[in-house]
Amino acid sequence: MSINLVSDKRLDNIGAVEKFRALMVLAGWLIPALLTAIGLAGAVDLLVRGEEAFGTTDAVPWGILIAGYVLLAVTCSGLCLVSSLGHVFGIERFEIIGQRAIYLAVVVLISAFAVLAVELGHPFRLIYVLLSPNFHSGIWWMGTIYGIYLVGLMLELYFMLRHKEHPARLMGTITFILAIAATTNLGSVFGFVNAKPFWYGPYWPVYIIVTAIMSGTAVLIILAWFLQRRIASKRQQGFCQNGSMFKHRLKKLSGTLSILLAAEVGTVLVLTFWKVVTSLYGGVPGQQQAAMALLTGPLAPTYWVFEVGIGLLLPLALLLISRGKGEKFNLAAALSVILGMVFMRLHMVSSGQILYIDKTTGMASYAAYIPSLGETAVIVGAVGFILLAYKIGERYLPFKP
Amino acid sequence: MSKRYGFVMLVYRCIDCKACQVGCWAENEVPLGKSRNWITKDGPKGKFPDLITDFLPGNCMHCGNAPCVNVCPTGASYQTEEGIVLVNKKKCIGCKYCMVACPYNARYYHPEEKTADKCTMCVHRLKEGLQPACVSTCVGGARVFGDLNDPDSQVSRLLRKHRAVVQLPQANTQPNVYYVYDSPVDKGGIAP
Ligand code: SF4
Ligand code: SF4
Question: Which of A20, A205, A281, B92 could form a disulfide with B76 if both were Cys (CB 3.0 to 4.6 A apart)?
Answer without folding.
Answer: B92
